[in-house]
């Protein structure tokens, strides 16, 4: 069923990100937050940008997607409410799967396949395992494989969803047990993920609330940190259609 605003979509300001290879989400969110009620924007991408859907829904947008060709999708976002996002990623927890852009560099169809797989794992409706537990499991798997970049991101997301310091204490004790004292001492202890854990524990003991702690760790261990960011370059210029 067509949405009541679809006859306006040709007038929406367009953001073409097909040739961008870095994290374009902050630029899109910046543009979206400036859109008035009952107005919209159009995002043009070479694969279906499904992670954008929830990000802009959290800002109060509905959307309609059109597949123009194998290498062009147009998503029209229309604002029905004014909502404020908690995090730069446009969601109720930090980080979006920006590494998907790396697959786009290789092949648009591959990027679309990765997006579908991501949605199956992380966006599944009525999932049997709650999201916080999935994140802790993913973090544990990443630490077991010494993928500390991924583990750091998962820990921060899990903390944003309410994981407690007591849970983290037990989890890191298990890492020492399963990985061995030597590996823990030389690899896990100096890692970014352990740094996040230490800062969370220290700041909670000092009486800071969760939001204040999240703001601090995202500033220190967010995408500005090259040991956490999943893209080669961190800053992009998100251009409107017609810009040079």
Describe this structure in words.
- The protein has helices at residues 25-33, 50-57, 100-106, 108-122, 131-144, 148-160, 165-179, 181-188, 192-205, 210-221; strands at residues 13-16, 40-45, 61-69, 72-79.
- With 244 residues, the protein is of the alpha+beta class.
- It folds into two domains: 6-121, TusA-like domain (Translation Initiation Factor IF3, 2-Layer Sandwich); 127-221, no CATH class.
- Strands 1-2-4-3 form a four-stranded mixed β-sheet, covered by helices on one side.
- Strand 1, helix 1 and strand 2 form a beta-alpha-beta unit.
- Helix 5 packs antiparallel against helix 6 (148-160).
- 32% of the residues are buried.
- Mean pLDDT is 88; it is low at 234-244.
Keywords:
four-stranded mixed β-sheet; Translation Initiation Factor IF3; disordered C terminus; alpha+beta; 11% strand; 244 residues
Tally of DSSP helical segments: 10
Helical residues, percent:
40-55%
Helix and strand content put the structural class at: alpha+beta
CATH level-four homologous superfamily name of the largest domain: TusA-like domain
CATH-derived architecture of the largest domain: 2-Layer Sandwich
In short:
By secondary structure, the chain is of the alpha+beta class.
Topology:
Layout: E1 13-16, H1 25-33, E2 40-45, H2 50-57, E3 61-69, E4 72-79, H3 100-106, H4 108-122, H5 131-144, H6 148-160, H7 165-179, H8 181-188, H9 192-205, H10 210-221
Parallel strand pairs: 1-2
Antiparallel strand pairs: 2-4, 3-4
């Amino acid at each position: 069923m067509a949405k009541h605003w679809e006859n306006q979509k040709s007038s929406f300001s367009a953001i073409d990100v097909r040739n961008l290879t870095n994290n374009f989400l902050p630029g899109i969110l910046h543009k979206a937050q400036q859109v008035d009620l009952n107005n919209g924007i159009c995002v043009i991408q070479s694969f279906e940008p499904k992670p954008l859907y929830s990000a802009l829904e959290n800002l109060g947008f509905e959307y309609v997607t059109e597949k123009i060709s194998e290498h062009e999708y147009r998503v029209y976002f229309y604002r029905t409410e004014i909502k404020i996002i908690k995090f730069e990623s446009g969601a109720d927890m930090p980080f979006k799967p920006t590494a998907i852009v790396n697959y786009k560099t290789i092949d648009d169809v591959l990027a679309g396949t990765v997006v579908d797989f991501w949605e199956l794992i992380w966006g599944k409706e009525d999932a049997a395992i709650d999201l916080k537990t999935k994140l802790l499991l993913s973090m544990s798997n990443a630490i077991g494989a010494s993928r500390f970049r991924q583990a750091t991101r998962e820990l921060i997301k899990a903390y944003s969803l309410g994981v407690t310091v007591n849970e983290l204490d037990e989890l890191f004790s298990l890492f020492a047990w399963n990985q061995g004292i030597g590996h823990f001492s030389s690899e896990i202890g100096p890692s970014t993920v352990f740094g996040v854990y230490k800062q969370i524990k220290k700041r909670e003991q000092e009486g800071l609330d969760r939001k204040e702690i999240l703001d601090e760790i995202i500033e220190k261990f967010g995408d500005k940190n090259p040991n956490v960011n999943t893209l080669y370059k961190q800053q992009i210029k998100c251009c409107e259609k017609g810009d040079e």
